[in-house]
Amino acid sequence: MTATTGLQVTDLHTTFGSKSRAVHAVRGVTLHVGAGETFVLLGESGSGKSVTARSILRLYGDTAHLGGRVTLGDTELTALSPKAMRSVRGRCIGLVPQDPTAALDPLRTIGSQLVEVLQVHGMQRSKLDARGRARELLELVGIPDPPRVFAARPHELSGGMRQRAVIALAVACEPELLIADEPTTALDVTVQALVLELFLDLQRRTGMALLLVTHDVGVAEELGGRIGVMYAGRLVETGATREVLAEPRHPYTRGLLDSLPRPGIPRGELPVIGGRPPMTGEVEAGCAFAPRCPRAVSSCRETAPELADLGAGRAAACPVVNPVPALTSAVSA
Amino acid sequence: MTDLLVASPAAAPPPAADAMATARTGRRVPWTVWIFGGLAALLVLLAIFGPAIAGNVVDGSLRQRLLAPGAHGHLLGTDGQGRDVLRRLIAGARPSMISALLPVLVAGLIGAAIGMGAGLAGRRVHSTIMRTLDVFYAFPAVLLAIAIAAALGSGTTNTVISLSIVLIPPIARIAETETMRVRDYDFMESARASGAGRGSIAIRQVLPNIGPALIVYCTTLVGLALVFAGGLSFLGLGVAPPKPEWGQMINDQRQYMLNDPQVALAPAIVIFAASMVFNVLGDGLRDLLDVRRESR
Amino acid sequence: MTALLEAQDISKTFGNGVRAVSSVSLHVGRGETLGIVGESGWGKSTTAKMLLRLLQPDEGVVLFDGADVHRMRGSALRDLRRRMQIVPQNPQTSLNPRLTLQSSLEFNMRAHGIRAVERGRRIPDLLDRVGLDPSYARRYPHQLSGGQLQRAAIARALATGPDVVVCDEAVSALDKSVQAQVLNLLATLQRDLGIAYVFISHDLAVVEHIADRVAVMYLGRVVEQAPADALWKGARHPYTITLLSSTPGLGRERIVLDGELPSPADPPSGCGFRTRCPIAVAACADEWPLLTVRGADHLAACVHHRPQLAPAVTAVPA
Q1: Candidate from C81, C93, C103 with C-beta closest to B185
Q2: Does CATH number 1.10.10.10 belong to domain C3-211?
Q3: Which of A250, B142, B155, C39 would bridge A237 by S-S if both were Cys, CB 3.0 to 4.6 A apart?
Q4: Worst-scoring range by mean pLDDT, A84-98, A248-262, B25-39, B132-146?
């Protein structure tokens, strides 16, 4: 994988805390998101999906120890000084966090926040140009009444509008990469669809790479692109989103999909993965999923399997690489 | 964008912090709590046994007036009436500590009850209670204490009463704030749905949550109360001479300040030091009881 | 089946003028599950609070076993509290952080005069029933995972042997793999103990799975109410149809609604859904349509008898 465009993450490790109490949250993640591509990081809480996204942005500063390499285009982000990294954030990488209210200054208008971003990163010299561009951006993210929103403060907007304003901020400097961390989780179901569509639309127009973090299979399905399923700090399965969700190869992906309620399953008989997901950094020897895995063999408890190529752009970190059959009670569907 | 990105990590602490908090089973007692807790215990012991240890501290010998520290076995010298300063300080611990600890205890119980009551009550009762407390806030605490003590007359009991009244509003305010913090939590809803009475909810559900913050705050208040009690005695509103009390000792020996400063400085330093002990202990307890972690 | 718990035309307007709930009528039979689905901030939790007698409705009555819960006093009220319990939403705050599980469970039992010996005997059984090791009784909430916390909250609700348990978004904050475990647990408990649930969620797939009947709320009103399978097969309100289309894994074409969610503080005139409804007509601006019968136990509030919605035209590229 020698790519000069887009985001390349190679063997990323993120560790929090001191040596004696280290919490190893991300344990060797390798992924590539080309320009104009979408990559969905799917995982449950504690899987390390958000930590991966934030580590790419180096948002943890001194609180985390990072290992591995992250490059964006020709720039090696992991080698940049903190100061240089600051200008990369926002300029080359946009971030859309989960909670739009925390990302906006509650006291200032959306317009002035957009203008500031444009001027700080040198996109627009004059205030007048910046204002014009800010209005265009609001229009770009599908805000129906840009002048009103331009002059509005965050609390005057609905959740969906706020999230759009945050997206406008994130894409203001035409970043090469947009990282969205659970961008629709705080939104109502019927509004989620609109925001996801907006991401795809923006991507088509600007050709940026999109890395979207979610726990929601529905969101992943909607977005398409490629997917990486994370469990206990590792990628356990990658491939084209629709293919992975239609025919998962890793027992965890299978179990996760089976546990979603859907019509035809009698009440109380949802197929479940036993046990619970490990907490951040809580990992024993061998495959982290082995204690919950219905197909685990003795070797699973000794060595953690690496992602193995299955052809057709698919990979899974499981010695059982054949398609995993659905759990028994799901067959009745 | 800089705003956005710089703000983000603060909004989302590393998940590791959570994991570690969960993994933690016991809390380490900070060294400040060991040391200053020990000192505070020593002060309490002094209050209990001080008068017995000190013996007769009322009668002095005029021939031994104003001896320098160390002279004739008087470790801190003697005062203007020829009485041993150290022994008077030891004997004075009881009234001084009583007039600091007791008001905090009384005000703590009453203030906690008022604060929880206000926090759990409906809007109208809540604002009535809080606005009434605000009236007390309108006066500087020291002035209020002096005014009440002056109206009641001098004596330890009246010092305790006046300080208790002064300390109730701030404690009630803390109790109210803490109660408001927890009252909309889900567990309060299920407590209300459980059928338990209000009193039971207050004591068994709310108190365990606000208790640590109250204990921390009250501990620091002991330090403040020591200074206040000393102030009242200094003004002659506390213990009547010749019985020793720290604040009153300063007042008593004021006239010798110019030539023999140690006679008035010694009780002043003791008040200051005792007050600091409780302040630092309060800070240490804050860490131990993890008051801030609960407020997230 | 006679209703065990029934709400008749209950409404609630808050002090700030927000009409959170308007003329909501619901009923749950013994051992039955009523699902309430709708987006956040639209009166689902307010409705739950009124059912639980934690909030007084402005209009309408709530009946439990035929008696008006908001007029209950003394022993009748205590009995209601024992028979109606809640499992709250947020695992992190649904249990008192300063109490061990034992103390939390004991609190509920003590409120109904259950003696210490009896309490101590019941706690291991309760924990075992919800799939927690009895040794967890001595643990504090921060020593438990989210799924374990919700199991403990369920155990607390069961402590006094209730007939109705209101689950207010009780599984929404859980990871999907854990959520499935808790849903199965709730179903098992219902089968074994004959408990009725009022199950509130924004997730239609979850509600459909667990509920016998579903009420769909929009802007403080019930817009459709039907047996779960009838709703699944033939929803009759455009909002329900849209919600169904955005549920993953059904292979339905997603219908994307335009427009923003209206604020409950400033609702549109007439039908609250008309501002986003693709098939709204002029009459929709006049008044909310009444709930009318569309089938066996099936009610919907729409001027169209059989609304048809076209899926989103803009195809999402793979």
Answers
A1: C93
A2: no
A3: A250
A4: B25-39
> Do the Cβ atoms of C107 and B21 come within 8 Å?
no
Structural domain total, chain B: 1
Average pLDDT, chain C: 87
Which residue did the predictor score with more confidence, B269 or A274?
B269
Range of the domain at B234: 93-289
3-state secondary structure of C295: strand
Measured between beta carbons, which residues in chain A are less than 8 angstroms from residue C248? 216-218, 221-222, 260
B-chain residue closest to A179, CA distance: B5
Helix (H) or strand (E) holding A189: helix A189-206
Strands (DSSP E) contained in C185-301 are 196-201, 213-218, 221-227, 292-295, 298-300
Q: Cα separation of A301 and A289, whole Å?
A: 9
Name the residue of chain A whose CA is nearest to C173's CA. Answer: A45
User: Which of A16, A27, A95, A162 should we substitute to test contact with B (largest number of B Cβ atoms within 10 Å)?
Assistant: A16
Q: What is the pLDDT of residue B171?
A: 92
Predicted local distance difference test score (pLDDT) of residue B12:
34
Judged by CB atoms closer than 8 Å, whether chains meet at A280 and B18 is answered as: yes
Q: Is C177's CB within 8 Å of A191's CB? A: no
List the domain boundaries for chain C: 3-211, 234-300
CA distances from C115 to C106, C122, C288 (A): 10, 11, 52
pLDDT band at B21 (very low <50, low <70, confident <90, very high): very low
Do the beta carbons of residue B114 and residue B175 sit within 8 Å? Answer: yes
Which residues from chain B sit within 8 angstroms of residue C156, using beta carbons? 190
Would you say residue B190 lies in a domain? yes
